[in-house]
Design a protein that fits this description.
By secondary structure, this protein is α/β, with parallel strands linked by helices. The protein is built from 23 helices and 16 strands. The structure holds phosphoenolpyruvate and magnesium ion.
Length: 588
């Protein structure tokens, strides 16, 4: 077979080599036949039983989640349980069996086709992602109906031929990903999905090489084909020659060695060759992530995405975490960081992080009632969270970070709410840090263009480049159709970053970056050269960024930085970035 290469969207790091294991959606293979009148109720029962079995399976996966499972997984399982309980899935197909006498599989696929067609009419990316979820749930039910529910490879008795298995599928549900966790599988390739799709998020948490958004890879790749995933390049090589495989094996070995070497830097402080100290902080989603942050040598937590405490909490009804529950979570993170600062971002729900299914009907969620807008509209929820955060501040250094601020009154109202939370605690005789630092995310262009409004009222700033890029370039960060336009080195973004660091310097307040740019080692020299002294990123990326800092001389970067900031030609910007990478010495 001739070798060929496919290009997709890279969502994690590393190289993997193995054989393709194709996962076909069960829907493609269903039988179609009519049921006799007297068998209709039995057929209805068969479908009901299958749905009940999937409910049980999902619950079993839930309770089998290892303590170190990616936190998002619980939320995804919850979404699937919710979909399964929706009358459109669990009742409509029963009516189809009764009225049209279709067999159970046919009835379910018919209903899913109707739902899919409705989703296809909608432009909204968030809703399109839900369509994939519905199909994944339907696939599960179909697998039970057709008796192929166990076609996922099991962990036990895995043989050598499975040892380097790469999963190829139209799409993979996070729940299926979780089952693969215990199997010797080393990568995955999917036709669908964007940079921030559910599967991408889990893959990054698991650290598995993967490429998504490949179009029709699952039709071009055959079962047991040899594959190479080069996830840094977003490339999959199908049926590579022995020579190419051996070259990639060499590259793999080099990468592995480099990673081991980097791990030795864990305890080294990030200081440039000319003596400038850079604070490297970790982004966390749940308190237990703080241990990995500490282990990676983080100087603190630069972003605790508190909304993950609020998401996917119960199967069928949403219940908010109480003040006590939140307090315990925040305190645990603070205590785990052993005196290092912990920046807790207040609830940033909405857009790609809905708290419950009712948000699916929002016209344009990224521009809707999200983050601080939601909190100010729901003062009781906000106040409860603020009191919990303040209580945690009695156990170590805590900072409060406000998301998505665009208006001056949002700062004022938030500060008033914080004062109210303080007074209530003081009145109740509960301890907290009275001088707690309060900062705001700079993630909306309006914020970056009105910095004097921020620096006057706040103690620090933190730039959320993920949203800043999304809103400045009008690119949905989760949509693979426009992923190629999502550019972090667009001159507009560089100007906004420069303006923010300059304004913060002038006002003598700290400014961090906590969006994806902070953990991108290709940009480290650019960012520290521009003047950033605090970078917050997923813990796993810390060592690589640290190494880039240890080999940089900020003074000698300046001429290139000035050139980049004067330039509006993307080609010249890229060339200058490459020059930046080669300036100075290397670490031995
Ligand atoms: C960002 O927008 O860059 C950010 C850090 O926040 P989130 O990714 O949670 O939106
Ligand atoms: Mg954001």
């Amino acid at each position: 077979m001739a070798s060929f290469t496919l290009q997709g969207i890279p969502i994690s790091r590393g190289i993997t080599i193995g054989r393709a294991h194709l996962l076909h959606p069960a829907a493609l293979d269903v039988q179609h036949y009519l049921i006799a009148q007297e068998q209709v109720e039995a057929e209805v029962q068969r479908l009901k039983d299958a749905i009940a079995k999937v409910h049980k399976d999902l619950q079993a996966i839930w309770s089998d989640l290892p303590p170190d499972a990616p936190t998002e997984l619980g939320a995804f399982l919850d979404v699937h349980a919710l979909i399964l309980s929706d009358p459109m899935i669990c009742e409509e197909p029963l009516d189809i069996i009764r009225s049209r006498h279709y067999n159970a599989e046919w009835a379910l696929v018919t209903q899913i086709d109707v739902l899919s067609a409705q989703f296809d009419e909608i432009e909204d990316e968030y809703l399109r992602e839900r369509k994939a979820d519905i199909q994944q749930v339907a696939d599960r039910v179909l697998k039970v109906l057709t008796g192929s529910a166990h076609d996922l490879p099991r962990a036990v008795g895995v043989d050598e031929s499975n040892a380097n298995m790469i999963v190829v599928a139209r799409d993979i549900s996070p729940a299926d990903m979780m089952q693969f966790r215990n199997v010797a599988f080393t990568g995955f390739v999917t036709d669908e999905g964007g940079q921030n799709s559910h599967t991408a998020i889990v893959s990054r948490s698991l650290g598995i090489p993967a490429v998504v958004g490949m179009g029709n890879a699952s039709r071009l790749i055959l079962q047991d084909d040899w594959l190479i995933i080069d996830s840094d390049a977003g490339v999959v090589i199908v049926a590579p020659s022995a020579l190419v495989i051996s070259q990639y094996r060499d590259r793999q070995a080099v990468l592995l060695k480099a990673r081991k070497k980097l791990n030795r830097l864990k305890k080294t402080q990030a200081v440039t060759l000319d003596g400038i100290s850079i604070s490297l902080l970790a982004n966390i989603e749940l308190p237990q992530d703080a241990h990995a942050a500490l282990e990676a040598g983080a100087n603190g937590v630069g972003l605790f995405r508190s909304e993950f405490l609020f998401m996917g909490r119960t199967g069928h009804e949403h219940k908010l975490p109480s003040e006590e529950e939140q307090f315990v979570a925040y305190r645990d993170a603070v205590v785990a960081m052993k005196g290092r600062p912990v920046t807790i971002r207040t609830l940033d729900v909405g857009a790609d992080k809905p708290m419950d299914s009712s948000e699916h009907n929002i016209l344009n969620p990224a521009l809707g009632l999200r983050a601080i807008r939601y909190c100010l509209q729901e003062p009781q929820i906000f106040l409860t969270q603020l009191k919990a955060i303040l209580r945690a501040s009695a156990f170590g250094e805590v900072h409060i970070l406000l998301p998505m601020i665009a208006h001056s009154f949002e700062i004022d109202q938030s500060l008033t709410m914080i004062e109210q939370a303080k007074s209530e605690l003081a009145l109740a005789g509960i301890g907290f840090d009275r001088k707690i630092k309060i900062g705001a995310m700079i993630e909306v262009p309006a914020a970056a263009l009105s910095l004097p409004m921020f620096v006057k009222k706040l103690d620090f700033l933190s730039i959320g480049t993920n949203d800043l890029i999304q809103y400045t370039l009008a690119i949905d960060r989760a949509d693979h159709e426009v992923a190629h336009l999502y550019s972090d080195t667009h001159p507009a973004i560089l100007q906004l970053l420069h303006m923010t660091v300059s304004a913060a310097d002038k006002a003598e307040i700290p400014v961090a970056i906590c969006g994806g740019m902070a953990g991108d080692v290709r940009l480290t020299r650019l960012l520290i050269g521009m003047g950033f002294r605090e970078l917050s990123m997923p813990a796993a990326l810390l060592p690589e960024v640290k190494q880039a800092i240890l080999t940089s001389n900020i003074e000698s970067l300046q001429v290139h930085i000035k050139k980049i900031l004067r330039c509006y030609d993307p080609v010249v910007i890229q060339e200058s970035l490459q020059q930046l990478a080669s300036v100075g010495s290397t670490l031995h």
